[in-house]
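Lay summary

Proteins are chains of building blocks that fold into shapes. Our project writes down both the chain and a compact code for its shape. Here are two examples, one after the other.
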Amino acid sequence: MNCRRTFIKQAGIAAAAGLVLPSFACVKSSKAVGLQLYSLRDFLPKDPRGVIAKVAAAGYKEVETYGYSAKDGFWGLDPKSFKNLLIENGLTAPSGHYGIDRYIQDGNEEELKAFIAAASAIGSEYVTVPYLGDNLRQNADDYKKVAAKLNTAGALCNASGLKIAYHNHDFELKPWGDTTGLEIMLKETDPKLVDFEMDIYWILRSGKDPVQLFNAYPGRFTMWHVKDMDKANNEKNIEVGSGGIDFKTIFKNAKKAGLKHAIMEQENFDMEPYASIKQSQEYIKTELL
């Protein structure tokens, strides 16, 4: 894409028509870069206000929450207070990670409804399932049961103007006959109710190709975790653009995947964490989006 050429062409058309051209932004930089706040889990509980301010200062426009509970809220802040904190720092939280193992296990919707209420209160679009306990994924039939529960949860979310999403690790790519847990969930869930958040790092750790999944299930992966892999140690994260993942090729398929939110995550740091997240944000914004 040649943004400058497009701008000049549009400017010429506008001038010829005597129109005032609105501010022009290339598609490449139209999406905000998000941060999964779990990256800063060592700091958030002690100083949520200071951490959120530093995240904004690092250039992020979106955050993804984790760890909410009805008792402690978002690191001691109730949803309204947390929403105000985000607004003060020019941030939004389109997604949050909420563990729903208990709902999947017994079908009790009370905790799930509390999560939906919290997500709604902070202006989120998604209630995202971050993990499945071992006892919930022992065979292919278990994944079908999970998919059915996700559909029901998706209907509950939809009633509040939200959508449910599922975030993968690598265990969902374990084969069950000629399929995998992730493919079972993709096939058994209603696309109108359930989206997926692809953790690109974990897909590659499992030996699978993200682009093949985009081709097989177009439009289903509306969020991505953008987390790079150290070239020498695939169990280690490193700043985006410094590792072994070819993000440029993957991002060429963003439209096919249905990407709406690119969310950086890093689980370990060799440099000062705020310098690290700033470096990753700048790379994603300038080189990938």
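And here is the second example, written the same way.
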Amino acid sequence: MNQSSFYPVGTPGLPWGEAEREAWRSRQRVQRSYADDVLRRIDALRARWEVSQYGELDYPGARYPLFALRSSGWREELPVMLVTGGVHGYETSGVHGALQFAEQHAADVAGRANLLVVPCVSPWGYERIQRWNAAALDPNRSFYADSPAQEAAALMALVAPLRHRVATHIDLHETTDSDENEFRPALAARDGKPFEPGTIPDGFYLCADSARSQPAFQQAVIAAVAAVTHIAPADPDGTIIGSPVVAHGVIEYDYGRLGLCAGITDAPYRTTTEVYPDSPRATPAQCNAAQVAAVAAAIDFALAHPAG
């Protein structure tokens, strides 16, 4: 099948220009509220967390303040545990899992580590249930110097002073059915390439950094999540979303080459979660709980196994 069968913007075989990007933007509609869903919950955490604005997205007709949560008892000598959610705004449990972790676990590592939680990196995408930002860029392929993505540039600036002190970074994501029926066709259309159908795994999995995979760390996270929801099996060819499975529920990407969020620090322990919210075997509450379990396990492992 060719890309024109799947996506209504652009001319098959030709990359988008500004006219096509504008046509794509005109199709996006606000479907939920960042203020109601995210900012209200952040405000309710001010008594237990230090809340700070680290930037603001400025798009035509839409401005969004960006907020981070820091441990209220921040101590400079302690390692930093970084949690990010909503890099892809449409991935709901990434945002709500980060918030739920902040609501439930603020005091868990008091005196042992500093927590830095950024619940919603891409509020424009959150409101429109969209993978890309308003410039039709994927923030999670944009974490590199002089990034054209406002979301990525703001987060990198926030984290830059801490990058050598981060012990673990866990970036919360989802793989959804809409990846296959909307976002991958859109990517093919935008780049003027043919759409190649793929598969969507049924279950939770992790994407480790191929340059620093830390297998024991990844398996500790998988084990914790398995108590909450099911782990995705490999496809018959031994892959998940086309990447070889290197351990139960784990694949690897080259974070640096791809400009992925979880590669923005020197953290020895880093991973990207992938929840499957469209599974008939999982509820929204389970998806959020899986993200929380993954974060807690990642932090516990990093504290128990400090890297030299």
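What can we say about the second shape? The chain has a mean pLDDT of 96.
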